[in-house]
């Protein structure tokens, strides 16, 4: 019996990489995309091989529709029918107030976090939906607790983009409920990944972790557990859910 196939966008680092490795360890066939860093992608491939698993890495910018179409076509041609999409690829920029931001920043943040999720979801639906001759499957969007906290003085634009992902998750779950596709989102809180360094605050988790009821930051592996569970067949009656992985924050 062929093992299910999962596609993780932005799988070369952080939560995406942890999801790739956990899914591979659990017996999934795994493909992942990366935007630029081929070296990081090769590191994940090597780590998967050490687990006895083969994963496939493909370069793609999820904010570019031609790249997304090529990504899905290549996965389908090389590996077969898709069972689950993890919309993980995303980004944020330097911490600042909204009145310091430029429109170019907003365009970049929304292109990566919102348009990328929409573009990938569309291609997954065209392949997985029973309406289009597919066998069903799951879409898991990686959102953020920022969508309900707002990230004042830091990343209001990122928080707003993840709010859009939350809304898309709820609506799309209802849209696809009779077509064999479950759509859920995971909303990580303060997680130890290098995304904070890219925003200019590498020590952010330790700086603010006292505001978390559990008094600690989370790990990418803890978030990956929630993602892989939602992508699996186990939560068969769960759709339209926004699952917080935040230590109670």
Description:
By secondary structure, the protein is an alpha/beta fold. The chain has nine helices and seven strands; from the N terminus they run βαβαβαβαβααβαααβ. The protein has helices at residues 14-25, 38-50, 65-79, 103-128, 146-149, 156-175, 195-198, 204-208, 220-231; strands at 5-8, 29-34, 55-59, 84-87, 137-142, 181-188, 242-245. The chain has a seven-stranded parallel sheet, with helices on both faces. Helix 1 crosses helix 9, helix 3 (65-79) packs parallel to helix 4 and helix 4 runs parallel beside helix 6 (156-175). The longest helix is centred in the middle third of the chain and has 26 residues, at 103-128. The termini are far apart.
Indicate the radius of gyration in whole angstroms. 17 Å
H and E string: EHEHEHEHEHHEHHHE
Strand content: 5-15%
Arithmetic mean of pLDDT = 96
Q: How many strand elements?
A: 7
In CATH terms, the superfamily is NAD(P)-binding Rossmann-like Domain
Query: Could you list the spans in which at least 5 consecutive residues all have pLDDT below 50?
Result: none
Helical amount? 40-55%
| Biggest pleated-sheet summary | 7 strands, parallel
Total individual domains? 1
**How do the strands of the widest beta sheet line up side by side?**
3-2-1-4-5-6-7
Q: Quick one: CATH class? A: Alpha Beta
**Terminal Cα span:** 42 Å
Number of helices: 9
CATH fold field value = Rossmann fold
Shape-level CATH architecture: 3-Layer(aba) Sandwich
Helix/strand/pairing class, anyone? alpha/beta
Gross morphology is globular
């Amino acid at each position: 019996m062929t093992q299910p196939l999962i596609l993780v966008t932005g799988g070369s680092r952080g939560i995406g990489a942890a999801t790739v490795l956990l899914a591979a360890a659990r017996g999934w066939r795994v493909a992942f995309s990366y935007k630029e860093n081929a070296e990081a992608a090769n590191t994940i491939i090597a780590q998967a091989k050490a687990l006895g698993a083969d994963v496939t890495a493909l370069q793609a910018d999820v904010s570019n529709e031609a790249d997304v179409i090529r990504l899905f076509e290549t996965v389908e041609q090389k590996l077969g029918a898709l069972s689950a999409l993890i919309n993980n690829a995303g980004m944020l920029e330097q911490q600042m107030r909204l009145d310091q931001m430029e429109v170019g920043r907003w365009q970049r943040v929304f292109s990566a976090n919102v348009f990328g999720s929409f573009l990938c979801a569309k291609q997954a639906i065209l392949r997985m939906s029973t309406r289009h001759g597919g066998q069903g499957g799951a879409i898991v969007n990686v959102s953020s607790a920022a969508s309900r906290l707002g990230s004042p003085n830091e990343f209001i634009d990122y928080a707003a983009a993840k709010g859009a992902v939350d809304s898309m998750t709820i609506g799309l779950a209802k849209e696809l409920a009779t077509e064999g596709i479950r759509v859920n989102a995971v909303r990580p809180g303060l997680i130890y990944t290098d995304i904070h360094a890219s925003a200019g605050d590498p020590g952010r988790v330790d700086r603010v972790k006292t505001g978390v009821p559990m008094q600690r930051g989370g790990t990418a592996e803890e978030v990956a557990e929630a993602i892989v569970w939602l992508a699996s067949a186990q939560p068969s009656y769960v759709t339209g859910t926004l699952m917080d992985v935040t230590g109670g924050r």
